[in-house]
From TrEMBL:
Residues 39-58 bind DNA. Pfam families: TetR_C_34, TetR_N. This is TetR/AcrR family transcriptional regulator. Residues 16-76 form the HTH tetR-type domain. Keywords: DNA-binding. InterPro entries: Homeodomain-like_sf (IPR009057), HTH-type_TetR-like_transc_reg (IPR050109), HTH_TetR (IPR001647), TetR_C_34 (IPR041483). It comes from the Bacteria. The keyword Ribonucleoprotein does not apply. The keyword Membrane does not apply. It comes from Streptomyces rectiviolaceus.
């Protein structure tokens, strides 16, 4: 795509349209490449603006991706509400409900690889090249999203306290990011796994590991709540 002449947005509505175009383009790119490979130069080229013009709307590549992370997380939470309602039997025991909740979360997250990749890069990459204002704005949005997740979890596991719900939501995000990173092997590691079946046993399955980790976490929180 060739660059188009830049014309300054004359209204907030025009600015919003251009910001959304940048976000939509970044989202499309992340279906083709991991976060680490998405460059501001390529994003600008695909949007059809000079890099300096893209920076009129977002202060950095990381600012674009942090906002996209907020968007992706919000969309996932809206889907998760219906998925949990369909999967978790309110008449089941707390342990059974916890296991179903963990399984549903893991399966749902696996269906959103862009979200998982953004979560895995959040602390080490995306939060490192933004201003205090953008950082604060993102953290406020993240707190709101955590609140939504806590509400969804406690709707199906009312045995958990609000604090336990927050603990679970926080650790679930951390588990997601960590497991995603370790379950996306490089080409060299894939070749090593293929060449040696014993090494292949070390390859992590994202859904299975996240499900088991969240099951254990919920089991511990429910046991503490029961005491």
């Amino acid at each position: 795509m060739t660059e188009t002449p830049f014309r300054r947005a004359r209204s907030e509505e025009q600015r919003a349209v251009r910001r959304q175009a940048i976000l939509d383009t970044a989202a499309t790119m992340l279906t083709e490449m991991p976060v680490a490979q998405l460059s501001l130069n390529e994003l600008s080229r695909r949007v059809g603006l000079a890099k300096s013009n893209v920076l009129r709307y977002f202060e950095s590549r990381e600012a674009v991706l942090l906002e996209l992370l907020d968007v992706e997380l919000g969309e996932w939470l809206r889907e998760l509400d219906g998925e949990l309602s369909a999967a978790v039997d309110a008449a089941a025991s707390p342990t059974e409900r916890g296991d179903r909740l963990a399984a549903t979360l893991a399966t749902s997250l696996a269906a959103h690889p862009v979200l998982c990749d953004l979560v895995s890069a959040q602390a080490a990459v995306l939060e490192r090249n933004v201003s205090p204002e953008i950082a604060a704005e993102y953290k406020r949005a993240a707190m709101a999203n955590v609140g939504v997740l806590v509400g969804l979890v406690r709707a199906h596991l009312p045995e958990l306290t609000e604090d336990d719900g927050i603990r679970f939501a926080t650790y679930a995000v951390m588990v997601t990011g960590g497991v995603w990173t370790h379950s996306q092997p490089s080409a060299a590691m894939l070749a090593a796994y293929e060449a040696d079946p014993e090494l292949a046993a070390l390859r992590l399955d994202f859904t299975a590991v996240v499900r088991e980790a969240l099951e254990v976490l919920l089991s511990g929180l429910l046991a503490r709540a029961a005491r």
